[in-house]
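Researcher: Next entry in the queue.
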Amino acid sequence: MPRRSTLTAALLVALALAACSGPDPEAPPVDTSRAPIDDVDTSTGEAPDTTDDGPTDALAHITSCDQVAALTGGLTDGLTLVDPSVDEWGFACLWEAPDATDLAEVRSIEVIGQPFDLRGSMTTPADIAAGGVLTQIPDATLEQAGGIAYSMRLGDVVSALAVTIQVPDAEISVGGGGWAGQTAGLDETAAVRIATAVLGL
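Model: Structure for this entry, 201 residues:
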């Protein structure tokens, strides 16, 4: 499976820290042990979830990061591709400014695609609203395909934008990072446009 780059990993860690809170350190331990109870029907009557979360062929047409770069609307122009990964598990493409001598020149663009069956685990608008960290991005084309897009912005000095696009058979992550509030020219609309182009929507 493609690995996530430093930029995306940092965003995901920050999201996890913001969205999750630990247990109350002063709360007493709870005894969850119980004696077994015989002859009790614990079935819910609901059919088991048999949704397959395995790989799909949604991104089989992507065979190189050059293909992905061509769909970024020029955002990768002047950047260098770093450690690309493309295989049956998807792709991970990261472009960075080569040999930047000024902080204003530091920027990066990242696009990651993971082709998995997400029908049983897609993020919902309710999830986004409840977390209070992410922002849903409306897009008619994506919604017609049963998908959803959401974003997260971090930092004022070193800035980053991470956008996640989910459809039932794949997830695309698009990230941009830069200096002093700049995210390498990437905004939410451009990120969704890149993802839908990658998906062929």
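Model: The CA atoms of residues 156 and 181 lie 5 Å apart.
Researcher: Noted, moving on.
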